[in-house]
């Protein structure tokens, strides 16, 4: 495994498991995005499965993947996670809330993408796009379209990565 001592091996194992989990979430998000932008055929069962993958790996599960002993080089997780633990956990929990709403929508997904699944539908968007009017911060995620929830999850990922992820060489 290339580590020295039990603690070092455990750290390497935890980092590799976290990286695998992140890759699974990224692949799941890419699958959903592909369904919404037409690069991939929509499949309600696949939508449900990949939305569940994201839901299962966010919130408390995501927080648990970042114990202080696994932060810093050679991991891509910055030491700042520990210094700003409350902010990190708030981002992880917010993503969990969004992912739960997305998974709930996926569990009820129709056989085809409907207009109410799309961004721009419903009053929360004010008829605009994600780049235009944004929903109020207190908007109930359960009332947002599935496509919008995905974009908010991806936005949350970007926010977290910009603050807490470092490039590893």
Automatic annotation (TrEMBL):
Pfam name, any one: Cytochrom_C_2
A molecular function (GO) term: heme binding
GO biological process, one term: electron transport chain
InterPro entries per record: Cyt_c/b562, Cyt_c_II
UniProt-recorded name of the protein: Cytochrome c
